[in-house]
Amino acid sequence: MEKPNLSYIEEISGGDEDFKNNMIAILKVEFPLELESIVQSFKENNFNEVSFYTHKVKHKIAMLGMPKSYELASIFEMEIKKNNTTKYKDFLLILNRIALYLNAK
Q1: Is residue 1, in this structure, part of any structural domain at all?
Q2: What is the pTM of this model?
Q3: What's the Cα-to-Cα distance from 63 to each of 42, 45, 59, 80, 83, rounded to whole Å?
Q4: Domain interval for residue 60
Q5: Distance CA 43, CA 92 (A)
Q6: Cα separation of 101 and 28, whole Å?
Q7: Nearest alpha-carbon partner for 60 in 104, 97, 18, 86
Q8: Residue of 41, 70, 42, 33 whose CA lies nearest to 55
């Protein structure tokens, strides 16, 4: 399984530590809220909301250098709209791995 990293953020920051730190700060604030919204919406079987928040969070997955996880998120985003929940557990594992990584930053 892929591990989150900051290589993309470091690349786009061009060595600007303030930019890098701001991006990390944004991720640390927004990601947990989106994760919570995905989990809650899933519990409520509100799959349109799950898809909405998945769309928002998948770009953060890409920013954290996880292209395979981004692909899974894209597939999950489409499938959940059709009430197909088969990829939810795998997607949730990715999100929890990211949450742990961001908590350690």
Answers
A1: no
A2: 0.92
A3: 24, 28, 6, 23, 27
A4: 7-104
A5: 13
A6: 10
A7: 97
A8: 70
pLDDT interval class at 104 (50, 70, 90): very high
Return the DSSP state at 72. Answer: H
Task: Tell me the C-alpha distance between 79 and 6, whole Å.
Answer: 29
Total residue count of the chain as it appears in this document? 105
91 lies in a domain? yes
Give the mean pLDDT of 4-24.
95
For the chain, the domain total comes to 1
* Count of other CB atoms within 10 angstroms of residue 38: 24
Domain contains 35? yes
- 2, part of any domain: no
pLDDT per position as a tens digit, 23-74: 999 999 999 999 999 999 999 999 999 999 999 999 999 999 999 999 999 9
- Look-up of token digits 């530590």: 17
Where does the chain show beta strands of DSSP type E? none
